Amino acid sequence: MTRRKKLLRALGVVVALAAALVAVLIVRAGDRRTPPRPLDVPAPVAEFEVDMDYALRALSDFIRIDTSTPPGVPRDPSPPAALTHLLDRYVVPMGLPYEVIEDRMLVVTVAGEDPGLAPLVLLSHYDVVPVAEDEVDDWTHPPFGGVVADGYLWGRGAMDNKGSTICQLEAIRALRGLGRRPRREVRLVIVPDEEIGGVEGSGAIVSRHREVLGDPFLVLDEGSALLTHVFPGLLLAGVAVGEKRFVTLELSVTGVPGHSSMPRRDAAPNVLSRALGRLADYQGPIRVLPTTEAFLDRVADHLPLARRIPLKNRWLFEGAIVNQLASRPGPNATIRDTLAITIFDGGVKDNVIPAEVKATVNMRLLPGSDLDEVLRRIEGVIAEPRVQIEVVTDWGDTPVQPTTGERWDRFESALVTIFPDAVVVPLVTPGTTDARYFAQADIPTFRFLPFTVDDDELSRVHGIDERISVDNVRQGVRAYAMMMSIL
Ligand SMILES: [Zn+2]
Question: Within 10 Å of residue 464's Cβ, how many Cβ atoms?
């Protein structure tokens, strides 16, 4: 064979291999999941008019009741007023059975059409995070004013989480107006204290009053929503089926105090700063959860071919995809355990080197991460035996709910029915929610609010100018009414 022939043959092999690879990539990219079939919505529920005047006034008045729970204040300052408002405006006029538990939690029951079906529990919290005094003036409308303007209802708690309580109650009121019952029994569980950890709210429900839940088909809490910003061009109905584990460490160093005019290299602040510097630069190993795999698969199904090919061929493109996820704080938090230095503590005078300094490090571990292993790794990064590491808070690992089986399928079908334009995706939220109390007690729990939000709207939650759009209130009422009718 001539040299030229050999070369041509080799080239032929390369071209054939490349063509085969492209064929494999495209075939795999074409492997799309059939979306679930929508459920039948009873005609009146599919197209009723929401009584927006009533709903907006009820939400506005609810926001005007200041239910702030500052850290360290264990009892909500005005639980009876908040609960009385809900009872007066909705529960009592409808004659619904209810129970007030320990003077500060409310459980409302709505009978279902089919008594044989396990109840749907809708969880919400009525406490809100406080508004710092020096931030009040930065608000466009007073944080506890409940003002409706420019297509929004403004105020602390509008989105987190009073909006959903009102939408749920308004949905029940709407169904009654239509002469309809929910498909299965619905129980609203309305709790305080979520913003301070929930021990005496949802924690108390699970540990001391579990009977009020019945044996639920599902507990639905906040923690995710319809998201427009995660994949531009795609509306994602993100159902959080898990959450990360909240762990707080206290790092401390004790040394010899001294005068700042004659500093020592081994002074306590120096030792701790060097350790914190190493921690700040540290990134834990990457772990892609099965939920994240499912998330990527389902998103890929709805992307154009060019973007679908890498996502559907992760065996080949995993490195590039992971790099991309790791490049932004949000996605990065879904593929690894993270840590953040949040509090510095030490020193009293500018010319005195303190004997002891401390720092607080808040960690968020992926479901299933081993805390001891993480601590060993952190000790290795710090590499300084003088730094004492103490675990001061640990909310424990929360099991991830399966995204197969009857419960997920039914919920997904319901969301496909209610939001035909959305792609339903499972995810694990880096935040923490009250849902963990239920999930940790093996009660099936999803996190989803039927509101459409973007980055900007989310950044207002716990921040300045929290608000909910009037459209989201309407959408929320309709969504809950449909959900109750078909789930
Ligand atoms: Zn909340």
Answer: 16
Structure tokens at 262: 């004659």
Whole-prediction pTM value?
0.92
Alpha carbon distance 201, 69 (integer Å)? 12
Catalytic site positions: 127, 194
Could you give the domains of the chain?
43-223+433-486 (3.40.630.10), 243-394 (3.30.70.360)
For residue 172 the two structure tokens come to: 């029940």
Among residues 180, 90, 107, 62, the alpha carbon closest in space to that of 483 is found at: 180
Whole-number Å distance, alpha carbon 322 to ligand 1 midpoint, is: 30
CA separation for the pair 111, 318 (Å, rounded):
49
Distance 478 CA to ligand 1 centre (A): 21
Q: What is the pLDDT of residues 392-437, one digit of tens each?
A: 999 999 999 999 999 999 999 999 999 999 999 999 999 999 999 9
Per-residue pLDDT band at 280 (split at 50, 70, 90) = very high
Closest residue by Cα to residue 240 from 333, 175, 142: 333
Q: How far is the CA of 447 from the centre of ligand 1 (A)?
A: 11
Supply the DSSP symbol for 210. G
> Between helices 305-312 and 314-326, what is the axis angle to 10°?
100
CA distance 477 to 465: 23
Cα(353) to centroid(ligand 1), Å = 42
**306, amino acid identity:** A
